[in-house]
Amino acid sequence: MTLEGLTIAKARRLIQAGELSPVQLVDAVQAAIERTDPAVGGYLSRDYQRARALAEKTDITLPLGGIPVAIKDVINVEGEPCTCASQILQGYVAPYDATVITKLRAAGAIPFGRTNMDEFAMGSSTENSSIQITRNPRDPERIPGGSSGGSAAVVAADEALASLGSDTGGSIRQPAALCGCVGMKPSYGRVSRYGLVAFASSLDQIGPFTHTVEDAALVLQAMAGHDPLDSTSLDLPVPDYSATLNDGVKGLKLGVPKEYFIEGMDSQVEARVRAAIEVYRGLGAEIVEVSLPHTKYAVADYYIIATAEASANLARFDGVRYGKRASAPRDLADHYGRTRGEGFGKEVKRRIILGTYVLSSGYYDAYYLRAQKVRTLIRRDFEEAFQKVDGLLSPTSPVPAFKIGERMADPLQMYLADIFTIAANLAGICGISIPCGDAEVDGKKLPVGLQIMAPAFAEARLLRMARAYETARLA
Questions:
Q1: pTM of the model
Q2: Sorting pLDDT into bands at 50, 70 and 90, what band is 412?
Q3: Which residue in the list 129, 130, 147, 192 is annotated as catalytic?
Q4: Which terminus of the chain is less hemmed in, N or C, by CB atoms within 10 Å?
């Protein structure tokens, strides 16, 4: 069998009907990886025998019983590598499961495969991986997005039914848009971050990549909920996300932020997104223009806050307890300097230096403190908008996937790739990217993503809005 056209929901029905076994499904994933991944480069490692052994004893009555899920290489899975695509963590093997992995196992899912990423999740193209290049399944000359590019690519290439990624400023939604799959960022605090290697602790969230919105709801259902091991995990009830999935959008009021349709955005991207907005109008939603006036500060604000938190979080990688260690250091200072200098890549070093600078004496108030105040203004923009509308519609990425190497020499252009996704992380709200058509570039059809945003902890509404469009598009 092949994975083409197979969703989690379909696979579950086949498994429960006795027409497909978890072992056969793991075998099919393995075959797909062997057939396709040499050209895609989405996986860093995988333990087929371990996954098959889990499949043999899985309880198929569980919600995700027998479903293999690929894992971004920034999430700890006991007994497997967790390199964060960095040389500094080569040889590190996770001694424990992240909470999301514990929850997925409890739901019957089978972690299978480690996916490529930008080093320590710092990037928008997966080109910052120190290990290999991941290519967009639609066009191997183009990037898959980032930082969770491997997780998006393996789903889009039918090498996985689902995968997990992390989203700090768009790292799930943007690659989902560029690869043509569904990618969801839950609200901050909805899913435990315990066992996720931290980039920016006040922004990071784990979320799923899937083929359909229905599948995203199933994976989120398994992962969501309070975790006492994560102090930022909120103790709130978790709704049944599938219960209202097909309730439609008739009577809902959806906002279109005028700041998200900007000069320089690809004309085909704008056309596909505006066409999707008209579909919502046809489904009975009221469409209104709204303003998020502080959006213009979001990218600058993000790159102060995120780099400041990164400089603190990455201080733990010193070569003393685990990972790479410089050979024959002269003294402790030489050990730290050489270990980190040799172990971290160029982009990670850039962000550590920037973050250390904005936190330094004499600059803290001018940069970091001011950035936190601007973050509050951005969050208030969303709060005011959500008093008027039930959700927001926008492009996910301003452009389709660009060519490998095209922006590596210009960090600012790379940072602007997340211009439409960053603000949701700063505000802590939930968002999702779903396919809304293709743009034709150089004779290739490249995916375009529609971003939908909803208030914090309104994931049920978000999924309902996404499902309504998806159903209409596929009808």
A1: 0.97
A2: confident
A3: 147
A4: C
